[in-house]
Design goal:
The protein is mainly alpha-helical. About 80% of the residues lie in helices and about 0% in strands. Helix 2 runs parallel beside helix 6 (about 145-180).
Length: about 270
Amino acid sequence: MLMPPPAPGPWQRVVDGVRGLFDHMGQVSLMAVHAVRAGFRRPFEGRAIMHQLESLGVASLGIVVVTSVFIGMVMAVQFAYGLRKFGGMEYTGRVIALSFARELAPSLTAVIVGGRIGSGMAAEVGAMAVTEQIDAIRALGADPIKKLVWPRLAASVVVMPMLGALAFVLGFAGAMVITDYEFNIPAGFFLRSALGSVRIQDFISGMFKTPFFGAIIALVGCHFGLITRGGTAGVGNSTTRSVVVISIAILIADFVLTKLTIIMWPN
């Protein structure tokens, strides 16, 4: 009677996990290079890019509006209560504006919207993979990376700065309204104090991150969609993995890009 192979030990599981991580990173990097090269070849897939801009950008406006406004309100309440203990409530507008311009608007928007966009990409491309539509594209002599990945990558890179800028405006507006209503800080003073503290470099350093976040969302979502196997269960698994990996990758990239922006635009 044949005995089943022994289960891998904890160290072997760690090694296999690290090996799998680098394997995925290599595949995503190669796919990114392939997609960018394919984007400069005719046809330029303009209609597909416009469709993805509508699908990714317009469809994400609702979640951006709701999350940014209420996060701005929550941050304003927290900072106002905290600063009131030290007699510094007049600094609330400055703190909120700097927080949103440099960090909250780009990174939080990317995490929230990235979960929606990335899961949609993984599910859509994964469904095509398990139904052999991607094999049919190859059989017809077309490039799946150019047809599927490039339009989503280009649209995500363009959409994320717009959504980040919108989140900054709406989040600051929500904070301004709630502080005027609840803490009697005039909206005009709130706005003037914020404009006196936030420089254009602060806004640029935040928006500088958003194209990279968009690229991460599109590449990871498409990657897990393309490697989907196992029918509908595989599609669900790829969707879940894409959301988790996108969130972690955005947070890691946020730290690296923040260090880079500090070097590029020192205070």
